[in-house]
Amino acid sequence: MERAIFTVSIILLFGSIICVAYVSPSQKAENAEGQVLGTKKEVNEAQQNLSFFLHHFETEYQQFRIANDNKMLDNEKRIAELKINMAGANEENKILYKKKLAVLERRISWKLKK
């Protein structure tokens, strides 16, 4: 008798699990549509974030470019001034000017290589 009760209870347990776990095809379709809509929202948010970051990066890059160009112009002006000053300087100052000129030209050539 105990064995029969145990068997019936196991059968009922498996039957209830199957009934609870069963999802009809229409429910599966509804769940899938909900997941698709959620995924579409996530994709739209990701695209908006991407466009924001691309715009932000572009702005930062332009600012960097302007600052770098200004530094390059300043260095070129300093080189031109050193060349002018070097023309009318004595030998000691010419040596100093040549050293400063070499340093500035190295900086410019180093920045251009990058």
Detailed description of the structure:
By secondary structure, the chain is mainly α. The chain has one domain (24-113). It contains three helices and no strands. The protein has helices at 2-21, 25-87, 91-113. The radius of gyration is 38 Å and the shape is rod-shaped. The mean pLDDT is 80.
Q: What topology does this entry show?
A:
Blueprint: H1 2-21, H2 25-87, H3 91-113
Helix pairs in contact: 2-3
Task: Summarize the entry for a quick read.
Helices cover 93% and strands 0% of the residues.
How many domains comprise the coordinates? Answer: 1
Number of helices: 3
Radius of gyration, in Å, reads 38 Å
What can be said about the biggest beta sheet? none
Name the structural class: mainly alpha
Q: How much beta, percentage-wise? A: under 5%
Which range best describes the helical content: under 10%, 10-25%, 25-40%, 40-55%, 55-70% or over 70%?
A: over 70%
Please give the number of β-strands. Answer: 0
Order of helices and strands: HHH
Question: Ranges with pLDDT <50 over ≥5 residues?
Answer: none
Give the terminus-to-terminus CA distance.
88 Å
Shape call = rod-shaped
Give the overall average pLDDT. 80
Comma- or semicolon-separated keywords:
mainly alpha; 0% strand; 114 residues
